[in-house]
Write a structure and sequence with these properties.
Layout (H helix, E strand, L loop, with lengths): L2 H14 L7 E2 L3 E6 L2 E5 L2 E5 L5 E5 L2 E6 L3 E6 L4 E5 L4 E4 L4 E4 L5 E4 L5 E4 L4 E5 L4 E7 L2 E5 L2 E6 L1 E6 L14 E15 L2 E6 L4 E5 L10 E4 L6 E7 L2 E6 L3 E8 L1
């Protein structure tokens, strides 16, 4: 099989694995503890509490890793990436940390180590392995994952073309996906994009595939509400609500 034929075949297989129009979530369950920000990925499950302390989930309990000063954290493929309250950047394994030059507010790392971020002025950046590449546009929140790079600003949802499949590429111009419902947080997973609207309701994007990376419409997820942040990795969905309660569900195939 030639390389071109093989790539076409792989693309066809990826298209077949796209989620059906209806995604089934198992019963939502609450984890012990209180966190304001969570992440699930190849480097484990991590979270930050209201006091800025960093935690890692080991089994069914949270292990305290570091005291105050943490702002956001993302579980990537090679490193855990994080931002501090002074907007400085860290990456590491949870035991030792390296300072990465720059000043950012929120950071997102995929399992293929595609790192995207925004600063306090909503400017967008992509890490190219050496330094931060400025990307045109403005976002208040960003997600880098298997369904590509997504983001939200002022309730509007955007997708970065040519990033689907966790592709290492700066992508094309931002594509406006939707204005309603107004979304405040979006998370990119495997053929799955989740989003939280301004009322705290969780939605998923129907029909997301390699041939249709932006999907067709939003569908509301029942039995969970008042959310402020969500993350997804393969079939695991992790979220926190407005009271810092931690919730998780498993997506049924």
């Amino acid at each position: 099989m030639s390389k071109i034929t093989k790539n076409i075949f792989l693309a066809f297989l990826l298209a077949l694995t796209g989620l059906a129009e209806s995604v089934r979530f198992q019963q939502w369950k609450k984890l012990d503890g209180k966190l304001k920000h969570v992440t699930v990925g190849a480097s484990g499950i991590w979270g930050i509490n209201s006091g800025g302390a960093l935690y890692r989930l080991d089994g069914k309990s949270w292990t305290h890793i570091s005291s105050s000063g943490w702002l956001t954290v993302s579980s990537g493929g090679e490193y855990i990436w994080a931002t501090r309250t002074d907007h400085s950047i860290r990456r590491g394994d949870g035991q030792s940390w390296q300072v990465v030059p720059g000043g950012l507010q929120q950071i997102e790392a995929s399992r293929k180590n595609n790192v995207w971020a925004i600063n306090r002025h909503n400017d967008i950046y992509r890490y190219n392995g050496i330094n931060w590449q400025h990307i045109s546009g403005k976002l208040q929140q960003i997600s880098s994952g298997a369904s590509g790079v997504w983001g939200s600003v002022s309730g509007l949802t955007y997708y970065r073309p040519y990033t689907y499949g966790d592709y290492e590429h700066p992508g094309g111009d931002w594509q406006h996906v939707s204005s309603s419902p107004q979304m405040k947080w979006v998370a990119s997973g495997d053929n799955l994009v989740l989003a939280i609207d301004t009322s705290g309701n969780l939605h998923y994007r129907t029909g997301v595939t390699v041939s249709n990376p932006t999907g067709s419409s939003w569908a509301r997820v029942s039995n969970v509400a008042n959310l402020k942040q969500v993350d997804v990795f393969y079939s695991v969905v992790l979220a926190v609500d407005t009271n810092d309660n931690i919730w998780y569900s498993i997506i049924q195939n």
